[in-house]
């Protein structure tokens, strides 16, 4: 099978539908997908029967409604196509009813209090804008998931609502600017996925990696990423074989895996897809994470998607490249050759600037998690203070507009590298800023804050909703204007003047920027418990209700789910540390101390005048560490037991951060010191040196 034939071969995509569906059915379904028209039940029945026949031809025996609950991963319940009939026979059956609606147990998924155990009914509803696909012999039908009362219990439903909000408001503006042929504005996303690959045998020897996804203990090795020799380095054969199989599995599912390379940290890698609509990109990224982990096991690897699996080296993010484009092929964030004269581009650009400034708190909430708290702020991860990078050219253009000055563009130049045989390379008008949380990168914005294990849905829901709200404000102003061109210029200038504080093109890691950000009034929310209350601030509830993305009840439920999840993660980590320290680390250090004492005593028996100062110092150090580790185990155990009495959900989250996590750090410091002096043969699990060098 050629690569072209392989791509999308397990997807019930537009080509398959055009070939197999009756023309009228295809046209009706296409209108639903492209224009958002209501789905006719008769169309669903024809589609279901065709989809079933196609799936069976591909070897599928079951079907499932594939959905994305608030767990952060996907869920599925498999049903066979077989249906018994008289005479002990069976037929293959799958109709419109089974395609359109499913009924999983809503009380068994996180609901934040929206559903109780005795209120179990929930529904999944077919999302025709995301193609069905075959995975492991099962036809997977992407669906939304809601409660009996109609509340969204998933990540897809709010995402679909938010993309529709952008579509509605952007079309209002485009019509006023003369684009009467635009029927739809899509949000496009390309999420770059970072991950670690480590030897699976070593992974299985560490309880912390198995239970939490990150190393809770581990002394730094002599060599980490200091020499920058892993970044873009030669991909080792075993890793290359893994990447090849991941690519092929993704291509069969229509996921456009495009770029792969070694990342900065040892054993760290990245996969980047081609842009697609936000809904498809979210579905595809969930599939990417699942396939990465599954294929890793076949190659003797464990794939780590945690934001900070190893202390002291880069963590893993998921850079969310976001833009807007029309069904007529216009990228609304494309500056063109003369961005200073491109009024349409400038209008949509300042809309994003205002949205990020006004809702910087929600952007911080959208990427908040216990894992990401460990990553943000260094090693190429952006800080937790939200700001925007535009580059020198756009910053100069906006400054000139604000002050009503003429902007004089610099001449386009080529880079002369100084070697006659090398071609001249066109030089970009601006550099890149890898420390910026929200950076403009040519014709899109790169939101660098999301963590590697996260669904990209939450971040895109916030960006979409905030931008839609600003576009609505702009459209209201423009619809009242007599002179559209003058009104656009006025909006651009006003927006720059009121929201330029969010723009920062410098080093986001510097202490000077943190002080400057505070002076500008930007929010400093260093941890998840600091950020989450912003989700239910009245201005933010009003935003989501105004754009019909979340109801108040849905936001309150998500607030509770996020707080509860944060506490559960910290609690699991704390109990894993206690288990490892009590059962593995402390016994190992005590065994080594005993051996040092015995060896010293034996040596003295042989020679009474032997100088054993080093051994005595070592034994003293080991004894102090044993006592210290034992004491910190007791403190952490006491702290973990106190969680239930820490108050409401927010109080518990703050207790986890201030008390439990602090005790964890203290215990780790002593255990890591003990690792550096304990005989390696006695240390109970693989250290960083083994984990980060084995391939």
| Annotation, overall tally of beta strands | 20
The appropriate CATH architecture of the largest domain is: 2-Layer Sandwich
Shape: globular
Mean pLDDT: 91
From the alpha-carbon coordinates, what is the Rg to the nearest angstrom? 28 Å
List low-pLDDT spans.
none
Instruction: Report helical residue fraction.
Output: 40-55%
What name does CATH use for the topology of the largest domain?
Creatine Kinase, Chain A, domain 2
**CATH homologous superfamily identity of the largest domain:** Glutamine synthetase/guanido kinase, catalytic domain
Number of domains: 3
Q: Please summarize the sheet with the most strands.
A: 9 strands, mixed
The first-level CATH class of the largest domain is given as Alpha Beta
Q: What gap, in angstroms, lies between the N and C termini? A: 30 Å
Count, helices: 23
Secondary-structure-derived class: alpha+beta
Which percent range describes the beta-strand content? Answer: 5-15%
What does this structure look like?
The chain is an alpha+beta fold and 695 residues long. It has 3 domains: 3-154, Ubiquitin-like (UB roll) (Roll), CATH 3.10.20; 162-550, Glutamine synthetase/guanido kinase, catalytic domain (Creatine Kinase, Chain A, domain 2, 2-Layer Sandwich); 566-691, Four Helix Bundle (Hemerythrin (Met), subunit A). Helix content is 48%, strand content 13%. It is built from 23 helices and 20 strands. The strands form 4 sheets. Strands 10, 11, 12, 13, 14, 15, 16, 19 and 20 form a 9-stranded mixed β-sheet that branches. Strands 1, 2, 3, 6, 7, 8 and 9 form a 7-stranded mixed β-sheet that branches. A two-stranded antiparallel ribbon has the order 4-5. β4 (82-85) and β5 (89-92) form a beta hairpin. α3 crosses α4 (41-57) and α21 runs antiparallel to α22 (649-677). The longest helix has 55 residues, at 552-606.
């Amino acid at each position: 099978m050629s690569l072209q034939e392989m791509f999308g071969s397990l997807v019930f995509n537009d080509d398959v539908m055009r070939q197999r569906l009756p023309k009228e059915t295809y046209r009706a379904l296409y209108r639903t997908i492209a224009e958002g028209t209501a789905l006719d039940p008769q169309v669903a029945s024809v589609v279901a029967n065709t989809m079933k026949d196609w799936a069976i031809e591909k070897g599928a025996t079951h079907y499932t409604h594939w959905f994305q609950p608030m767990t952060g991963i996907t869920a599925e319940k498999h049903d066979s196509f077989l249906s018994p009939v008289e005479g002990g026979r069976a037929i293959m059956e799958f109709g419109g009813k089974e395609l359109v609606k499913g009924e999983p147990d809503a009380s068994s998924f996180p609901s934040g209090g929206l559903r109780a155990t005795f209120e179990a009914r929930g529904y999944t509803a077919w999302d025709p804008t995301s193609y069905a696909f075959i995975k492991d012999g099962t036809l997977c039908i992407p669906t939304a998931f809601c409660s009996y009362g109609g509340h969204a219990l998933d990540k897809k439903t709010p995402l679909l609502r938010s993309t529709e909000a952008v579509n509605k408001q952007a079309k209002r503006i485009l019509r006023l600017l003369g684009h009467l042929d635009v029927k739809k504005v899509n949000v496009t996303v390309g999420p770059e996925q970072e991950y670690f690959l480590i030897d699976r045998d070593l992974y299985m020897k560490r309880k912390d990696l198995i239970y939490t996804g990150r190393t809770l203990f581990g002394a730094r090795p002599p060599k980490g990423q200091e020499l920058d020799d892993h970044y873009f380095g030669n991909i080792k054969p075993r890793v290359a074989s893994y990447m090849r199989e991941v690519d092929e599995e993704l291509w069969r599912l229509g996921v456009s895996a495009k770029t792969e390379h070694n990342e900065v940290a040892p054993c760290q890698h990245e996969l980047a897809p081609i842009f697609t609509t936000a809904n498809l990109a979210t579905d595809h990224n969930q599939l990417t994470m699942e396939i990465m982990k599954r294929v890793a096991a076949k190659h003797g690897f464990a794939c780590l998607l945690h934001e900070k699996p190893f202390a002291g080296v880069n963590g893993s993010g998921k850079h969310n490249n976001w833009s807007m484009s029309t069904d007529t092929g216009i990228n609304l964030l494309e500056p063109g050759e003369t961005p200073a004269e491109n009024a349409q581009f400038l209008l949509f650009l300042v809309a994003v600037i205002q949205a990020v400034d006004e809702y910087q708190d929600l952007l911080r909430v959208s990427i908040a998690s216990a894992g990401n708290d460990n990553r943000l702020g260094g090693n190429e991860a952006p800080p937790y203070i939200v700001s925007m990078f535009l580059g020198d050219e756009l910053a100069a253009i906006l400054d000139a507009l604000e002050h009503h000055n003429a902007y004089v563009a610099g001449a386009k130049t080529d880079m002369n590298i100084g070697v006659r045989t090398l071609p001249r390379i066109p030089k970009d008008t601006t550099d890149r800023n890898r420390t910026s949380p929200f950076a403009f990168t040519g014709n899109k914005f790169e939101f660098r804050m999301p963590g590697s294990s996260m669904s990209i849905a939450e971040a895109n829901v916030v960006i979409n909703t905030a931008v839609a709200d600003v576009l609505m404000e702009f459209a209201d102003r423009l619809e009242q204007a007599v002179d559209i061109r003058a009104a656009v210029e006025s909006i651009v200038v006003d927006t720059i003047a009121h929201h330029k504080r969010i723009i920062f093109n410098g080093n986001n890691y510097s202490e000077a920027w943190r002080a400057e950000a505070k002076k500008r009034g930007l929010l400093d929310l260093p941890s998840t418990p600091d950020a989450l209350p912003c989700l239910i601030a009245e201005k933010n509830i009003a935003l989501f209700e105004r754009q019909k993305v979340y109801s108040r009840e849905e936001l309150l439920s998500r607030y509770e789910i996020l707080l509860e999840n944060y506490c559960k993660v910290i609690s699991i980590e704390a109990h894993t540390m206690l288990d490892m320290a009590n059962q593995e680390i402390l016994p190992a250090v005590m065994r080594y101390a005993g051996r040092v004492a015995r060896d010293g005593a034996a040596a003295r028996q042989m020679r009474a005048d032997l100088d054993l100062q080093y051994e005595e110092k070592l034994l003293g150090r080991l004894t102090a560490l044993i006592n210290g580790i034992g004491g910190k185990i007791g403190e952490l155990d006491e702290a973990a037991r106190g969680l239930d009495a820490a108050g409401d959900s927010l109080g518990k989250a703050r207790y986890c951060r201030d008390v439990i996590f602090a005790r964890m750090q203290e215990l780790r410091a002593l255990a890591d010191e003990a690792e550096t002096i304990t005989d390696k043969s006695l240390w109970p699990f693989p250290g960083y040196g083994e984990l980060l060098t084995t391939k």
